[in-house]
Amino acid sequence: MTLAPALVAGAGMIRFGKYEPSVTLEDMGERASRAALVDAGVQLTDIDAVFVGHVFGGPVAGQRIATRLGLDGRPVSNHENYCASGATAIREAWVALAAGLHDIVLVIGVEKMTDRVSGGVKPDPNDLDAAVGYVMAAGHAMSARRYMLDHNATREQIAAVAVKNHAHSVHNPYAQYQRPISLDEVVNARPIAEPLGLLDCSPISDGAAALVLCSPRGLERLQVGDRVTPKVHAVGLVSGAVEVDDDINAEDVSRRAGEQAWELSGIGPDDIDVVEMHDCFTIAEIVRLEGLGLVPRGEGAHWTQQGLTSLGGKLPVNPSGGLLSRGHPVGATGVAQAVELTWQLRNEAGGRQVEGARTGLAYCKGGTVSGTDGGSVTTLVMSR
Asked: What is any Pfam family matched here (predicted)?
C-alpha cells in the first residue's frame, strides 16, 4: 500500500534551550509557526487544519496556540505519543492530506520542559514522569553494557556518538549546545548510570518547530515556482510493548517500524543519504541504526569511531546535533527532525550540509518500558 506524499512548503523553528518562565509554550509554538508560514509564503486563510504534538502542554494546547495565531475555527488535533508526539502529528497530517480531507495544513511540535523541573525542586518519587526518567537512564545503561559485551565495543566508541553530535551542532544556530566536546569530557563526565555519564544523556529542553504541509493541489494554490518542496513519503508507526527475551538490544520494534516505512515509501535503507536519529542516549543512536537495517548488526559503534556516521562519512547521522546537542523538548523533537531534513534536502543547512542529500530518514521512539522493547515508534522517510 502506498499513499501520495505530502509536500513540505515551509519549515520553521526556534532555538532549543532553557527559557525563562515568562516564555510560555504558546509563545514558542507561535514563533515557530509564524516562521514556517513565512517560509512557505502562505496566508492564515490558506491553512485548512492544525496538528500539534506535545506531551506536557496541558489540555487543548494546540487550540491555545491556534488562537494565538488567528486560526480560530480550524480543525485542531493534539497528539501525545511521548517522544514520538511530533512525528505522530506529522503522520496524521500526511494521512489527512492523502485522503483529500485538507490541502494545506500546519504541523507544530512544542514543549516547555524546564518549568516542570525549575526552582531546584526534586521530582516526586511517586511522579510517573520522574520514575520513567530514572528507568530510561538505567535501561540504556544496561543496553550499553550488553552491547559492549556482545560486540567487543568500548566505552570510548559509545562516547564518540556524543563527540560527533556536538561537533555537528556547532554549525546549527537552533541547537541548545553549540560547542565541541572531547572524548575525555564524555568519558569523565558525572556518572548517571554506569557506564553512561551526563554527556551521554540528552538534556532538559524547551523548544518548538513547525511545518507547512500540502497536497499537490494545495501546492498549486501556493504557487511556489521552482523552489524545492521535499516530499514526506511515509511515516511508519508501531506501538505496543514487545518482549525481547534475553536480548535488550534486539530493537524489534525499530525493525518493524523501518519495514513499514520502506513498504509505504518504496524507498529502502540503501537509498538513505542522511539520518536524524532519536539519540536520547549515546547507545540509542547505535542500536537503533542497527535495528532499522541502516548499519549492520554489531557494527554501529565501530562505524561511529571510524567517522562513517559523521558529516562527510558514508551515512551522516544527526547533522543537527541530535537530541544530545540540539536538545530534546520531547513533543517538538519529531517535527524538529523533519525541519532539519527539509533544510538538508533543500541544500540550506549551511556548515552542516550533507553534500548531495536527496533522501532522508527521521526516527523517534517514545515510552519504552523497562524489560520490553516497545512504546510508540515513528519512522519518517523524505526525499527531494
From this structure: Thiolase_C_1
Residue 36, C-beta contacts closer than 8 angstroms, at least 6 positions apart:
10, 11, 12, 106, 210, 211, 212
Only one residue has cell 495565531, namely: 69
Q: How far apart are CA 125 and CA 33, in angstroms?
A: 36
Q: Is pLDDT above 60 for 123?
A: no
Which residues are tagged catalytic? 83, 328
What's the domain count of the chain? 2
245-266 tens-digit pLDDT: 568 888 888 888 899 999 999 9
> What average pLDDT does range 186-212 have in this prediction?
96
Same domain, 284 and 363: yes
Task: Return d(Cα 280, Cα 322) in angstroms, integer.
Answer: 8
Can you spell out the DSSP letters for 6-41?
EEEEEEEE---B---TTS-HHHHHHHHHHHHHHHHT
- The DSSP result for 284-350, as a single string, is HHHHHHHHTTSS-TT-HHHHHHTTTTSTTSSS-B-TT-HHHHT---TTTHHHHHHHHHHHHHTT--G
Residue 86 maps to a domain: yes
Q: What range defines the domain where residue 92 resides?
A: 6-117+205-230
Q: At what angle do helices 25-40 and 61-69 cross, to 10 degrees?
A: 50
- Nearest-angstrom CA–CA distance, 326 and 224: 30
Amino acid identity for residue 336 in this structure: A
Look at residue 199 and tell me if it is in a domain. Answer: no
- pLDDT tens-digit series, residues 254-312: 888 899 999 999 999 999 999 999 999 999 999 999 999 999 999 999 999 999 999 99
Let me know if residue 141 belongs to a domain.
yes
Q: Are the C-beta atoms of 345 and 355 separated by less than 8 Å?
A: no
Q: Is residue 372 part of a domain?
A: yes
Q: What is d(CA 335, CA 357) in angstroms, rounded to the nearest whole number?
A: 19
